């Protein structure tokens, strides 16, 4: 069944940022912290410079985006987080220290949620929040924790390429071909060089044309420490400018799309999701 976008649009386009700076590295090395500055500084480029350049680019295109931020980043870079909110962008949750959910008990995950929401409250940002799980890792019991915290949608899974329901949660699916990390993430010890920006954007252009043909959701996911680098920004700007005025595209944010899906499909199609089936 073809997903019915509003106003006769052929597809929806959401630009999202996972603004996680060094938190994934700190989580992954928590048992054996090295103190080595190489990857830490590489990632800190995101909250120091990359995010500001991306915000300038979005402003120049009059574009609102969805930004998912771990609580530890909110506490360390409050000015950047406030600027994101003041620019009218949506802010969503992304763990506290980018914890991988499969490493946590439900109680530990609930503590992470509490700490994340209180970090947001300290900079004046209130829910309801959407959620994107760190490393796109989720469990059925974690979904129930999210429901308990009143999370308005999840955006971490790939079971469709249009909005759907999983358990009692609206899911706004992501997908690996639309994640900058699989192309750009080069850290000391990586086995292959990063993909050239023009090739990455060329691939995203094809995905966008495909989304239009199959009437799906183009959920782009970028990380400021990766996509905030200068040449990559130039390439991204070219892509966004080419499609910004396309009348067939609904440019939206995750919270708006989740609201649309809830209103339009409280039951019926896109709802028949059987957990536990292969
Ligand atoms: Zn992340």
What does it look like?
By secondary structure, the chain is of the alpha/beta class. It has one domain: TIM Barrel. It has helices at about 25-30, 35-60, 70-75, 80-85, 105-120, 140-150, 180-185, 195-215, 225, 230-245, 255-265, and strands at about 10-20, 65-70, 90-95, 165, 170, 215-220, 250. The strands form two sheets. Strands 1, 2, 3, 6 and 7 form a five-stranded parallel sheet that branches. A hairpin with a 2-residue loop joins strand 4 (about 165) and strand 5. Helix 5 runs parallel beside helix 6. The longest helix has 24 residues, at about 35-60. The model has no long low-confidence stretch (mean pLDDT about 95). It binds zinc ion (ZN). The site of zinc ion has 6 residues, from loops.
Care to give the gist of this entry?
This protein is of the alpha/beta class and 278 residues long. The chain has a single domain (6-29, 36-264), classed as TIM Barrel, CATH 3.20.20.370.
Summarize this structure as a short list of keywords or feature phrases.
single chain, 278 residues, alpha/beta, TIM Barrel, five-stranded parallel sheet, two-stranded antiparallel ribbon, 11% strand, binds zinc ion
Global shape:
globular
- The share of residues in helices is 40-55%
Ligand roster: zinc ion
CATH superfamily: Glycoside hydrolase/deacetylase
Domains (count): 1
What class would the helix/strand composition place it in?
alpha/beta
**Assembly category:** single chain
- Give the low-confidence spans: none
Order of helices and strands: EHHEHHEHHEEHHEHHEH
Strand content: 5-15%
CATH architecture: Alpha-Beta Barrel
Report Rg.
Answer: 18 Å
Task: Please outline the major beta sheet.
Answer: 5 strands, parallel
């Amino acid at each position: 069944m073809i997903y019915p976008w509003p106003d006769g649009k052929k597809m929806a386009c959401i630009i999202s940022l996972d603004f996680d700076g060094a938190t994934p590295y700190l989580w992954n090395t928590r048992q054996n912290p090295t103190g080595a500055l190489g990857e830490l500084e590489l990632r800190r480029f995101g909250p120091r410079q990359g995010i500001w350049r991306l915000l300038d680019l979005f402003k120049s295109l009059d574009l609102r985006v969805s930004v998912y931020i771990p609580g530890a980043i909110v506490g360390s870079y409050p000015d950047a987080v406030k600027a994101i909110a003041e620019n009218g962008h949506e802010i969503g949750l992304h763990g506290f220290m980018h914890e991988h959910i499969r490493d946590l008990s439900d109680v530990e995950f609930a503590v992470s949620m509490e700490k994340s929401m209180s970090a947001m409250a300290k900079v004046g940002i209130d829910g309801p929040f959407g959620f994107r799980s760190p490393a796109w890792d989720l469990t059925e019991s974690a979904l129930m924790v999210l429901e308990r915290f009143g999370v308005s949608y999840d955006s971490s899974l790939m079971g469709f390429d249009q909005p759907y329901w999983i358990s009692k949660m609206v899911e706004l699916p992501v997908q690996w071909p639309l994640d900058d990390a699989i192309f750009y993430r080069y850290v000391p010890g990586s086995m292959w060089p990063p993909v050239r920006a023009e090739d990455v954007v060329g691939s995203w252009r094809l995905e966008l044309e495909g989304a239009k043909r199959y009437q799906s959701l183009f959920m782009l996911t970028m990380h400021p420490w990766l996509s905030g680098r200068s040449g990559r920004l130039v390439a991204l700007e070219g892509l966004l400018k080419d499609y910004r005025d396309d009348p067939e595209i609904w440019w939206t944010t995750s919270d708006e799309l989740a609201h649309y899906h809830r209103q339009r499909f409280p039951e019926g199609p896109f709802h028949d999701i059987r957990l536990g089936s292969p």
